[in-house]
Amino acid sequence: QVQLVESGGGSVPAGGSLRLTCAASGRTSSSITMGWFRQAPGRQRDFVAAINWSGGSTFYADSVKGRFTISRDSVKNTVYLQMHGLKPEDTANYYCAADREPDPVVLISTGRWTYWGQGTQVTVFS
Predict the structure, then answer these.
(1) 70 in Cβ contact with 79 (< 8 Å)
(2) What pLDDT was estimated at residue 30?
(3) Mean pLDDT for the chain?
(4) Which residues contact 75 (CB under 8 A, 6 or more apart)?
(5) Of 80, 97, 83, nearest to 35 (Cα)?
(6) Which positions ≥6 away from 98 have C-beta within 8 Å?
(7) Contacts of 74 (CB under 8 A, 6+ apart)
(8) What is the mean pLDDT of residues 43-49?
(9) Gap between the Cα atoms of 113 and 101, Å rounded
(10) pLDDT in tens, 65-109
């Protein structure tokens, strides 16, 4: 099992920045793929970003490209989501996900991520 704990959420004005952190523990290894999703009230959970085990390949939803950056520290078993230029429509509960599938494209297309965190709330006010 892998446990994921998110942190770093908060309330910021439009145009502001936040950095989310997801700490993985348990049967972790550097070979797990990690990602971020978000869910606004009354809406489905949407893919935000993903990163492969080496950190060499990253993937983003079109809505966040150029504003969000995903990165990882494999030594610390931690993944980050740096968010700049936040907009009110970015308001959501942000979830960290992980899976032992090494190819993020497979996980993004199937949505079959095994491990999930509890989420951290991001609120962007105008």
Answers:
(1) yes
(2) 58
(3) 95
(4) none
(5) 97
(6) 2, 4, 24, 32, 33, 34, 35, 113, 114, 115
(7) 30, 53, 54, 55
(8) 97
(9) 9
(10) 999 999 999 888 899 999 999 999 999 999 999 999 999 999 999
